[in-house]
Each structure stands twice: as C-alpha cells, then as structure tokens.
Amino acid sequence: MSISYATVTPTSMELTPVRVKFSGTDLGGTLGNVVINAKYTKAEIKADQFGTLVLDRRVSGLEITVTTELNEVLNKANWNVVFPHAQYLTTSTAAIQFNSAVGDSDLSRAHVLLLHPLSLADADVSSDHTFFKACASAESSITYGPTEQAKLKIVWNILPDTSVSPAKLYRYGDTTI
Amino acid sequence: MGTRRLAEVTVEMIIAYIKANISASLDDTSADTDTNRWPEAVSLEDPRNYLIAAPAQAYTTPTVIVYLDNFDYRPSQKGANHINAMAKITVACILEDRDLERLALKAYRYNDAFHEVLAQAEIVDSNNAVKLVVIVERTSFTPEFSNAGDEPLGTFRKELHLECSVEHYSNF
After folding, report:
1. d(CA B122, CA A12)
2. With CB atoms 3.0 to 4.6 Å apart as the test, which of A44, A115, A135, A177 could cross-link to A110 if both were Cys?
3. Hey, which bits of A92-128 come out as E strands?
4. Residue B7: which H helix or E strand, with range?
5. Do A2 and B120 touch (CB under 8 A)?
6. What whole-number distance in Å separates Cα of residue A98 and Cα of residue A16?
7. What is the dihedral of CA B19, B24, B26, B29, to 10 degrees?
8. Domain range annotation of chain B
C-alpha cells in the first residue's frame, strides 16, 4: 500500500467532446478528437565561456494550432472553412471552386474559433477555448471509400489579434474577465 | 491508508443518477412527436426496481439491473497517482407486455431514454471524491421471451442491455 498520498481532486478532471464554432457558426460533427497545440518557441542564451551549456531561454515566438476532422462533408460551408482561399459559391446547391489565389492573406480570412465543452451548459463559458484569429492551413485529405466515413481534416493556425495590446491569440476561460 | 471508493460507489452513483433523471427522459421520449416513430402509444412508466444482481424471486417490471462487469485500474496504461480506472458496466432494463410488437417498441423507446440519460453523463459523488464519465458503447436487445410457454395471453418479457465504459477518477 502507499505510505502517502497526493491531493487529487476528481472534480477537476474532464472528459468531454467539444462544440466547434468558427466565426459564430457551429461546424457540426467532428471525429478524431479536437487537439490544441500551443508552444512558446524559445531562443537559447549561451556564452562561449560556458561552451554549449544553455544559460537561459528567451521567448522568441508563439505557435498555436487546433486540429480536428469535420465529418459534415456535404456541407460546403465547412469546405469554405477548411479552404478559406477557395471560392465559395452560395447560389443554388452551393459549390467550392479552387482558383489560383496567389497572395491571398490568412489574416484577412481569420475569424474567432470557439471550443465549448459539451459537459457544460451553454451559459457556462468558464472552460471555453477562444482563439481570436484562426485561419485554416488550407490543406486537407478527403477520402471516400466503402468502409470509412468521409471527413475533412482541418488544422487552424492561430494568428495574433493586434488590435489590442499586448497582441492576443488564445484564451482558456471566460473572455469577459 | 485512504479509503477506497470503487465498485460499490460506482454502481450506487450510476443507479442514483438514473433514478434522478430517467423519469424526465421517459417523459421526453413519450412526448416526442417525431413522425418517424411508429404511431402506437406505448406507456413508458418509471422503473419500479433498481437492482445490482438478477433476482431469484419474481419482480415487477420495468426493472433496472446495473451489473459491474469489471474494473480496470489501468496502472501501466495511465501511470496515474490516483485511481484512474475504466469500469465496464451493463445497465439492463427488463420490460414486459402482452403484445410482442408493443414490447419491441417499448424496448426501443426505453433505449432512447436510457441513452439520453447516460451518454456522456458526468457524475460526481456528494463528497466530490469520485467523478464518473459514462460512455455508452452499445445496446443489445434480447429476443422476446415468455415463461408461459405457448399460452396466447401470456406476458412477454424483453431486456435491453446498455454496455457502458465508465471512466472512474478517485483518490487513493
């Protein structure tokens, strides 16, 4: 038996899918989980006198991505989220057309990405994930076959919202506090 | 030494959660006007018994039996400094009716109600010492059966079994 114990709070543990909203629109069903990656990249501070020993590390950047798979592939609005540089034709049955889009800006296509845990009521935003400027990487593989459900993989790159100081990228929790 | 809250507490919490929520869910299912449902009226009364083992004696239906099939502590898989286990639980509901078709419909509708209650349910005990998250994996239905042989007016029974994986978090 253990001789001592950690202070473990089961109520602080979580296991839940999330609702994915982009620019205020619920993107519907997802598969393969929703994965958030965040990394402060750092530069190493060294001195010849200490050889290769790292004396310090300084933040040199911030990389945040959100990855999932959208399974409502017949909804062409979802294609427009995955491929924001493609042309979205909303008339009739709608269509997505891939044109040359050289020079098209990610930032101009970026919108708020919001993840809300389904274990919480809609009004409880205490564990929401808000990405202030998200734009899809615009690369995906779509597989159709007789045994596996079709889905659209999406990787959002998170850009800084420079309209505020300091520039903000992502908040876990209520955005009003 | 920390007191363990494992099998008994898990089963008790699930039964209490079903008791607290199944009535409203059955009402939801009864009131559902989806035109894809058969139009037959089927009474969905609240379960009368909640058990943890199949009874040897006669019992009234609907009866819910919560079986704990196994409790996997996953020590090498999770490497946790607490109990981070996966319990396999079967929630069975025994139903009866004199009409075979209505009995089948009843089983489908109880399945809807139980799934609504249990799928992705997060359950915390009154001491905040145990948290459960229920994942409903599948439902299986038994054939309709009768103890009355070929008696035409006999009562038939049918069971539905919701097989659940239950994440269990608690302290050592």
Report:
1. 12
2. A135
3. 95-97, 111-117
4. helix B7-31
5. no
6. 35
7. -150
8. 6-88+100-171
Report yes or no: A131 and A156 within 8 Å, Cβ to Cβ. yes
* Contact yes or no for A8 and B82 at CB 8 A: yes
Does residue A120 have a pLDDT over 60?
yes
Give chain A positions within 8 Å (CB) of B172: 2, 5-6, 8
User: Do you know the residue count of chain B?
Assistant: 172
The letter for the amino acid at A24 is G
Backbone angles phi, psi at B68, to 5 degrees: -95, 115
Residues 6+ apart with CB under 8 A from B8: none
pLDDT tens digits for range B41-86 = 899 999 999 999 988 777 889 999 999 999 999 988 888 888 999 9
A170: amino acid identity, one letter: Y
User: Tokens representing B125?
Assistant: 């005990």
Distance CA B121, CA B132 (A): 8
- Closest by CA position to B68, among listed B87, B50, B83: B87
pLDDT band at residue B150 under the 50/70/90 scheme: low
CB A88 within 8 A of CB A96: yes
Residue B126 CA to its chain's centroid (Å) = 21
CB contact under 8 Å between B122 and A119, yes or no, is yes
Task: Indicate if the alpha-carbon torsion angle A45, A48, A49, A52 is positive or negative.
Answer: positive
Q: Does residue A162 have a pLDDT over 60?
A: yes
Question: Which of B74, B85, B72 is CA-nearest to residue B168?
Answer: B85
Give backbone dihedrals phi and psi of B82, rounded to 5 degrees, phi first: -155, -175
> Please, are residues A21 and A68 in contact by the beta-carbon 8 Å criterion?
no
Cα–Cα distance for residue pair A122/A27, rounded to 1 Å? 16
CA dist., res. B55 & res. B128, Å (int): 32
